[in-house]
UniProtKB/TrEMBL annotation:
Subunit composition and interactions: Component of the NuA4 histone acetyltransferase complex.
GO biological process, one term: chromatin remodeling
Compositional bias ranges of the Basic residues kind: 62-71
Compositional bias segments (type: Basic and acidic residues): 84-94
The protein, known as: Chromo domain-containing protein
Source species: Lojkania enalia
This protein's record includes keyword Flavoprotein: no
Domain of life from the UniProt record: Eukaryota
Organism classification: Eukaryota, Fungi, Dikarya, Ascomycota, Pezizomycotina
Cell compartments where the protein resides: Nucleus
Pfam families noted in UniProt: Chromo, Chromo_shadow
Chromo domain: residues covered: 1-64
Length: 159
């Protein structure tokens, strides 16, 4: 990835949310001559940064220093993946099962009528909550076929 006078070798995070890149300068082959530079200092070598990001699977996320010890009840626990593209490959997208949904749907949350974006006609949709806590929207005609007992329970509870 040599361009002009530098090569991006690796990236590191200081823990304060800033990413530093290890730069090997052209003509300086010794490891001791490499420097760690923030992204702002490499604005003239964006092509090299993009090549480096492509080689590692995307732009690295800055890491913040984590507290040691027990989590506070006031702090929400968040986990953000380092690279969404890698996570997408590992975890395939969930979709409703084929056949009957009676045993997979926890309950029908609500039914609403809205304009179908494809046809422009008013269409009724059911919002389903699944046993795995996912919430999805489906045309009411489809839901009536896939889980009629859940729809009956919904209608009876809303009399």
């Amino acid at each position: 990835m040599s361009y002009g006078n530098l090569t991006a070798k690796s990236a590191s995070s200081l823990g304060q949310g800033e990413i530093l890149y290890e730069v090997k300068w052209q003509g300086y082959e010794a490891r001791k001559d490499r420097t760690w530079e923030p992204e702002d200092n490499l604005s003239g070598a964006l092509e090299i940064l993009h090549e480096y990001w492509d080689s590692i699977g995307g732009r690295p996320n800055p890491k913040t220093r984590k507290r040691k010890g027990r989590k506070s009840a006031a702090e929400p626990e968040t986990s953000t993946p380092v690279n969404d593209a890698k996570r997408a490959r590992k975890e395939k997208e969930w979709s409703p099962p084929p056949g009957s949904w009676e045993h997979d749907v926890a309950y029908v949350d609500t039914v609403e009528e809205s304009i179908d974006s494809k046809t422009g006609n008013p269409t009724r949709y059911a919002y389903l909550v699944w046993n795995n806590r996912r919430k999805t929207q489906h045309p009411l005609v489809h839901v009536n076929q896939k889980c009629p007992q859940k729809m009956l329970a919904y209608y009876e509870s809303h009399l």
